[in-house]
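Researcher: Let's try something more involved. This one mixes different molecule types, so please make sure each is placed in the same coordinate frame as the others.
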Amino acid sequence: DVKVTQSSRYLVKRTGEKVFLECVQDMDHENMFWYRQDPGLGLRLIYFSYDVKMKEKGDIPEGYSVSREKKERFSLILESASTNQTSMYLCASSYSVGNIQYFGAGTRLSVL
Amino acid sequence: AQSVTQPDIHITVSEGASLELRCNYSYGATPYLFWYVQSPGQGLQLLLKYFSGDTLVQGIKGFEAEFKRSQSSFNLRKPSVHWSDAAEYFCAEYSGGGADGLTFGKGTHLIIQP
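Model: All components are placed in one shared frame. Result:
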């Protein structure tokens, strides 16, 4: 079974803090994704990576950055957390673009 | 821009009754279509997918979906729901031609009445 692991299920941070959300997949997938999920808005793509050190902006990249130094790990970084970044963050991976995406359990981030 | 519409925000169904969740996609050529389910506090699990071929696709947990190009629809069905089917359901589309992720609908929240 494909396993996508997000390092934290719940995080509470203060405004202005630098926040790292970590995601690891064990299936040697080329592509990894970070989504944000908010009630009534569904899932929105923040960033996408199709190879090590490669990244593409999604629909809502403002206020976020990403890092992919190794194929299995994709990190989402909030440089200076703000209250409007309180949300559920979901990581996903896929073998190729357009193929099935496998999701982690999500990280619920609260910024106070 | 491509979009996926799930017209029903909430649906309530009695246990044992049939279910149909609606989904309309916008990119008509040769979409790749998916249905995912999300239980409370969990990530998304794939129910089924359509890439090509037979327009009626079978998935896990007794779900099926039918691709209708003429209606730009990919509705999810189940003949008899169980209380454990209560969850959020997302339809998603990948239309190709770029390096983007999937485009998701806003989801349908399914409530099961005893």
